Amino acid sequence: MKLNIPDYIQAIQAYKPGKPIEELEREYGISGSVKLASNENPLGPSPLAVDAMHVAMDKLHRYPDGRGYALVEKIARKLGVAPGNVVLGNGSDEIIGMLTRALMQPGDEAVMTAPSFLMYEIMVRSAGALPVFVPLKSLFVDLDQMAAQITEKTRMIFLNNPVNPTGTIITRSEFEKFLGKVPDQAVVVIDEAYIEFAADPDCADGLAYCTGQRPVVVLRTFSKAYGLAGIRIGYGVMPEELAGWLHRVRQPFNANALAQAGACAALDDDAFMEKTVRLVRGELEFMYAALEHMGVNYFPSEANFFLIDVKCDADAFFEAMLRQGVIVRSMVSYGYPEYIRISAGTREENQRFLDAFEKVINQMQPGK
């Protein structure tokens, strides 16, 4: 087969999601694994969402509402924005693809942090445009350096807040100062996938900036705090004019019927959201205290995950933890060769992680 693949597509490295538990258990010959690698909700999905999806299953022979009217209206009311500001996506990463298709051409540039969510780079390169990387500074976004990288070719700037994979935040004052340096031709995309977990009152809230004349887009998702990662539903909030352009490139029926029904119900489940956030914050503190007792260096987070410095090869540490039946995330591919990332689970899951961690750290760091 002779395919004429453009150079900018050949330059893309495919996104590699974490392996499912079932696959890892087959490979390693283990069972009863604990997965704390993908920042998922340890409580599962919202019960109201599950009930709503069961009801919606009776109509699966019908196409979904192509505009997602009920869900868009409910998101708009909850956030205090106009329905015209909301665009639904098959996960918030689909919104990234819409933005790059609508706004970028070959030769354009997009500024983003390194490390960051890989889909920013993939979608930018898919449009023939170029990513411009700015390293994190002591695990924080270096907004001064990001501003310094903006040129007349810059069409988009990607931020995430709280930051994945470090769990740090961009403060309100920092963000406003940065916005003052951004020219009108550059759209600022602030990905708030973990915003529900942020407890710091100084954390910037992108919704305060995305419905006026400034080209600011906020991305949010039902995958994390709402526990609906498996049905792929997210959304973007942005100026209405920009939303109109995204609707021109949006796939028809991109938000499926079950996703719309589940997300609508999840927005009403305040008790589940409060329980999730309370559990995550409490379990993070539980693990911090245990790691301090072991003398292990970790980095407190405003998300539902955090980094741990294992002071040895993180890939090897990941493999050793797998053999204990605990799945964590190595940060080698993110540029942190001695860090792992751990998601907050239930108390039972977290205790199992800590027991396995202590065993592995003592094996890999004799005399610890």
Describe this structure in words.
The longest helix is centred in the C-terminal third of the chain and has 25 residues, at 270-294. This protein folds into 2 domains: 15-44 and 271-364, Aspartate Aminotransferase, domain 1 (Alpha-Beta Complex); 47-268, Aspartate Aminotransferase, domain 2 (3-Layer(aba) Sandwich). The mean pLDDT is 94. With 368 residues, the chain is an alpha/beta fold. The protein is globular, with a radius of gyration of 21 Å. Strand 3 (109-114), helix 6 and strand 4 (130-135) form a beta-alpha-beta unit. 39% of the residues lie in helices and 15% in strands.
How would you concisely characterize the structure shown here?
With 368 residues, the protein is of the alpha/beta class. The chain has helices at residues 7-10, 21-28, 47-56, 69-79, 92-103, 118-126, 143-148, 172-179, 240-249, 257-268, 270-294, 314-322, 347-364, and strands at residues 34-35, 86-89, 109-114, 130-135, 154-160, 187-191, 216-221, 234-237, 297-299, 305-309, 326-327, 329-330, 339-343.
CATH superfamily of the largest domain: Type I PLP-dependent aspartate aminotransferase-like (Major domain)
Helix coverage percent: 25-40%
Structural category:
alpha/beta
Q: Distance between the terminal alpha carbons, to the nearest Å?
A: 56 Å
**Biggest β-sheet strands, sense, barrel:** 7 strands, mixed
